[in-house]
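[User] Could I get a sequence and structure tokens?

[Assistant]
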Amino acid sequence: MALFHLLFELIKISILSCIYASLTLLVFKIIANYKPNSWFDRVSKKKLKLWFSSGLCISIFLFFFMFSHFGDHGLGDSARIPIGHGKAIQEVDGMQAYIQDEGPISMIEIDRFIIADDFVYGFISEGNENYEGSYFVYDLVNNSVKTFEEENDYINLLKTKKLDYNTDYKDFGYYYGQYWHGWRFWLLP
């Protein structure tokens, strides 16, 4: 499945590169019309060379962007959304959402949650093996997780951090749709 998704992304990159290279050619031609005998005028006379070279550069950029922190949305059965500070929430098989990071925290499986400011907080999944409790608050700045068994303790911490506790918690699919649909879906790999 991941191989099919990678092939799809490569085809999408090639289509986007063709479109962006055509737009680059058009912009160069427009600038050349307003500034004859300029560098833009000389370069835009070699249309095919400009189109291929800009398309190649754009496709290389899009390929590397696809694997960057803000461009990686997962391949195959895995999905990923960046949440800031170099961290991401991942999901496998459309069922198990988790935060995994190098360093002091290990994988925490989450159910429904809120992403706000520099925090992710919500409900711990029932299948979680690494953390005790029903609620969690993940501080992205300090890279620390606090878990709570009692709702009152959880709400008290949210109040001290000035986080909204009377809100509708969402699942991974909601945040994935919010982040990756719209302009990112159409303009990026």
In short: The longest helix spans residues 2-34. The two ends are 17 Å apart (CA to CA).
